Amino acid sequence: MVIFTCSGQHAPVNSGQFDFYGWMPNGPSSMRKPPPSGKGATYQIILDTLPEVNTTTLAMATVWLLSHEPEDKRPVGNYTNERFTEEKPRQHIKEFQRELDQISKEIQARNQNVTLQHLYLDPKRIESSVSI
């Protein structure tokens, strides 16, 4: 459960933040007034409600940093240090890596025929841990 939470669950929540919140109306980081409660909100009411430019810039910089792929990225299943020398654990690791590769191929195949690709759960893009 810990491994999944720190990799597979964290990746789609974290990696897409800038894609969705980079356009501030999708999820304003703050609001200066309560949101309009009924129909008929004017353009000026909306502008008065949304955060100021400096607040928006800070929020966008934050989600960009959180979403940015690290330079030392290690995809899930990619183990640079050999921790096990016994045959049985090594077989399990190889099987796990084959399954991740198959999942990645299936995701990439599905993405070929769609306009908006879903990339966040592709094992090749999932970090092995929570790293920012």
Automatic annotation (TrEMBL):
Any one Gene Ontology BP term: lipid oxidation
Domain (Lipoxygenase) ranges: 1-132
GO-annotated molecular function: isomerase activity; metal ion binding; oxidoreductase activity, acting on single donors with incorporation of molecular oxygen, incorporation of two atoms of oxygen
Region entry Disordered, spans: 71-90
Source domain of life: Eukaryota
Keywords: Dioxygenase, Isomerase, Metal-binding, Oxidoreductase
InterPro entries documented for this protein: LipOase, LipOase_C, LipOase_C_sf
Protein's name according to its UniProt entry: Hydroperoxide isomerase ALOXE3-like
Source organism of this protein record: Pelobates cultripes (Western spadefoot toad)
Lineage: Eukaryota, Metazoa, Chordata, Craniata, Vertebrata
